[in-house]
Design brief:
Length: about 325
Amino acid sequence: MGAISLPGVDADLYPTDPNNREAWLQERRKFIGGSEVAGIIGLSPWESPWSIWAYKKGLLSSDKEMTPNMRWGVKLEPVIKREFEETEGYEVTGTQYIALHRDNKVAGATLDGLVRKDSQSPVLGPLEMKSSEFRSPEDWAAEIPVYYQTQCQWQMYVTGTSHLWMAVFHGVSNPIGVYEMERDQSDIDYLVEEVEKFWTRYVLTGDSPPVDGHQATLDALAARYPEQVPEKEVELDGMEEIFADYNRAKETQKVAERAEKEAMAKIAERFADAEIGTLNGVPTYKYAQQSRRSVPVDALSKDHPEIAAQYMKTSKFRTLRDIKPPKEKSKK
C-alpha cells in the first residue's frame, strides 16, 4: 500500500498489516526507529550500537523474541487505547503506521496511533502505548524513563508534531497513566546529529561500531557467531592487556559477590525474625518471605519422562576457557 497523508502530520504514513509481522520487521531494517535511538546514544537497556548495526545490516534474525511484557503490551493496546479515549476525550486513529520523515528517509517510527479531537480534526500528535507494571505511576509522574523520552522526541521529529501522549498500563490495581510530552527542538537536533553519524559511519560503510559491555552487544555477537569452526585458529597478539582486564574483572566480581553475601548475612542476623528495619526510628527496610514456584526437573524427568521431553530445551552457548599447555614428559 502506498503512503497516505493526514492533516497535522508532516510525514509519509504507511499502514501496517497486523497479521504480517515479518513484513514490518523487514521494513524496520531500512530506517532508524524511535525505540532504536536510545540504543545509538547509549541510553537503552535493551539495545546497543553494535546490536542495532548488526540488525540493520541483516546479520541478525529480524524476528526478535518477544518478552512476556512485550507480548502483554501488544495484547493490551486495544484496552489502553479505549481507556485513553474515554478518560482524555480524544479520538485515536485505529491503525498502526510506519511513519517516514519526508526529508530524512533514515528517520522513521512505528506509531501506535495518532491523537485528534475527532474524525474531522487534524492530528495533534502520536500516541505511544506501554505496559510498565514494574514502575509505579508515581515514578512515571516524577520522570518518564529517559529511553522513552528519546523515543517520543524522535516520533515528534518524524511526524512534524509538537505534542505526544503516552498511555501506560501500570497493572490492574492502577488506572491507565497518561503523560503528555512537548517537542524539545534542542533534544531533537542532538538525536538527528547522532543518528546521522551512526548511519553514515557504520550502516552505509558496513564498518561495525566499537563493541561495548552492553548485554545486547554480547547477545548479538553470540547470535552472529553461535558456533565455532573446529580447530580454526585466530591470532590474539596485542590483546594481552584485554585478557588481563577480563581476568581482573572476573576476580573483582568474585570478591564483590563474597562481600555482598557477608553483608547480607550480617543483615539477616540483625533482623532475626523481624520484618521491618528502622534507621533513626524511621522504617527503612523490609525483610519478608516470598514464595516462588518451580518444577523439580530431575524428579519430573524420572517420574514422567515423556512429559519432560515435550518441554525440555537445550541451550547452546560458547564459553571461554584457558588452554593448559601440555605437560612436559619427564626424561628418564
